[in-house]
Every structure is written in C-alpha cells, then in structure tokens.
Amino acid sequence: MNLQDKVAIVTGPAKGMGTDITLTLARAGADLVLAGRDMAAIAPVKEQVAALGRRVIAVACDVTREEDVAVLAKEALMHFGRIDILVNCAGGTGTIEKPGHENTVEEFEQILDLNMKGCWLTMRAVLPTMIAQRYGKIVNVGGTFGMRGRSGRMAYSASKWGLRGITKSTAIEVGTHNINVNFVAPGMVEGERFNTKVMPEKAKKLGLSLEDARKTFEAEYALRRISTGQDIANAVLFLASDMSRQITGVDLPVDGGWAAL
To answer: Are 23 and 47 contacting, i.e. CB atoms less than 8 angstroms apart?
Structure first.
C-alpha cells in the first residue's frame, strides 16, 4: 500500500485516531496537508511527519466554514500542485447518554454541522482538482452508530448516518472520474475521548466503576476488545491506496464486531 508521491489532506490530524491516521499515511510515503483549528496540537504531529522524510504543511481550518475550506484547498495546490487523498477525520461526539428529545436545538445543529456539513465542504473543495487529474481517494471517518441506532446518541447517530448518504451519493457521482469515496466506521476507540468522556458518562449513568463501565463496552463486541487508533488507520490506508481501486461507496466497520451483531 504505497502512497509514494501522493498528496493527502487530513482534517483533524492531531487528536485521537487522527494522529495515527496521519503518521500511517506518512509512513506509506504520502506528503501531508494537516488541517484543523488547534494549531498548537498539530505542531508536534507536523514535526513527526517531517521526521519521516515527508513534505508537510499545516493549515488553520474550521471545516464548517466555507471560506476556511477554500483556503485549505488553495494552500494544498499552491504547495504541492495536486490533491490525491482526502481523509475527513475531524468530527465531534455530540451529547452522550442524553435522549434525543432532551437535546437542545443548538446541540443537534452543532454536531450535524461538524460531522456532515464539514465533510461535504472539504469534499466539494477538492473534487474539482481530483476530477481534473482523473484520480482521487476520499475516506470519510464515520462511526458504527451511523449504521445502528444507539440510545443516548441520537444526534451523533443522525450525523454519521447522514455522512454515509453523502459518501454513497458522491461515490456514484464521481466514479466515472476514477475517484473512490468510502466510509470507515470505527466503534469505540482507545484514547482520550473514550477514557475521559465516553466511559465516565457511561459509568455515571449506570452507577459503575470505570473498570466495570469499560467491561460493558467490551462485552458488546464479538472480539471483546476496544479498537485502537492504529486499527482505524490501517483501514484508512487501505482505502486511500490503489489496493482498493475497485472499492467505492462502501461502509467498512472497524469495531470488533459490533455492527455485525
């Protein structure tokens, strides 16, 4: 899965699985455009990419802002002359363990804006270039709650379900231009978000210790383990490479067997 001489944009490259995805693409040979709001968090990731011998730039970008995304695409083309890969990893969790009818309008709109509109804007910005060069790989990082409904996560589930529709429709529209568009669906993923937000909320709701809350998550998976960021990065690398040349519009769960149960 060689990405030598390929240029990849990664949104949300510096937190959680985003770092694993970024470094995995770099190790495979890709030059990187790192896009996000927290430039201080991106800086050390940028250094790691450069240490691997890859060309890399960082661009301040709020993916929900059309003007920011336009600048992102312009900067990528100005520095590298092409855009081969887009990985949409930037996203949010929304409210946790909160019934949908208790969400505020603001809570609902915020997560749809980030998880759906943000991905659509970045795709819209890079597709003219990909169409012109007759080559492109887009990987949208969604979630398995967008494949099965989940109590207490209605807004998040809706946003990721909607992202699947964006992915599949776009895959049909741009397939004739030799562009693959796919959807990777992580389950729970080891990391700060899982350990400091998701698990504590579950523990609080059920009156459990953190250790027992973790066991409730593990028990839901056929493989009885939580995914790592590297598990997700491996799937993204496959779909960003030419090994997946005949795969488009698919949902690829990386969840230890939750979506299949």
So the answer is: no
Q: Is the pTM of this model over 0.70?
A: yes
Among candidate residues 108, 135, 156, 194, the one labeled active-site is 156
* CATH number, position 47: 3.40.50.720
Q: Provide the percentage of residues in the chain whose pLDDT is more than 70.
A: 97
Is residue 221 situated within a structural domain?
no
Answer yes or no: 156 catalytic.
Answer: yes
Closest alpha carbon to 146 in 98, 88, 186:
186
Whole domain around residue 154: which residue ranges?
A: 7-189+228-254
Residue 200 lies in a domain: no
On whether residue 97 sits in a domain, the answer given is: yes
The per-residue pLDDT for range 26-61, each reduced to its tens digit, is 999 999 999 999 999 999 999 999 999 999 999 999
| 166 in any annotated domain | yes
